[in-house]
Give the backbone structure.
Amino acid sequence: LSGHLGHLTGAQDKALQEFKARLEQNGYYTPASETALPSADDVTLVRFLRARKFDVPGAYAQFTSAEDWRRTEQIDQLYDSFSLPEFEMARQLYPQWTGRRDNSGLPVYVFEVASLTKEKTDPYSKDSSRLEPRIVALYEHMVQYVLPLSSAIPHAHQESPISGCATLVDISGVSLQRFWALKGHMQRASTLANARYAETLGARIYLIGAPSFFSVVWGWIQKWFDEGTRNKIHILSAADLTSTLSAHMPLSSIPRKYGGTLDWTFGESGPNLDAEAREVL
């Protein structure tokens, strides 16, 4: 948990204070007052610091670039006014929250790449001007709703707010040709996450069902992520799939398809909230 709120070292906390001061001095941060919350919470600021190994100049460059982008693209307004039908259409083609969490409290997302058939992706991609806004809406839903909700649900280290997710990426049954066709679709989302939503990919990404030609695909994927994110990717074989997942999350958080007890199917249902989550709501 080093590098997370509640577990910052003295040097890391000093970097956070320096980061805030530099941002405030240049108009990118407003501290909390008696009548207003800070313009950015500590969870967000620490995410950007962690992405740059607590190098303040590096975090400043990434955060201010993201903030300039948010202002130019009017991201808050985009999310607040995003239509539900378009949001649901986008949700079908990207990782989906199961409604459950791992042992650390991270929300568990699942992405079944084989579900991205040509019949789904071709119509989706016709209006190129809407591709990025749709991804943005999904990320905003995660950082504005899913992560705060997960933080509010009792978890192992309540002193540390949840700032990222755990993702199961199922690549079984996908041909090399189809991977190539989907490369731009997946790269667009991963690049946006790294640049604008630092460290939201959480502690672990589980790759399931890797085909024999995966070394070719891995050569592409590695270029989409920074080193820190690449180190979070774990390739699971069929033999150790359930045992590895169950070491990091309860069986009730693992869909039945992967050896757990959770009744949840990608693309067919929304989050299946447990009693703890429903109680918080």
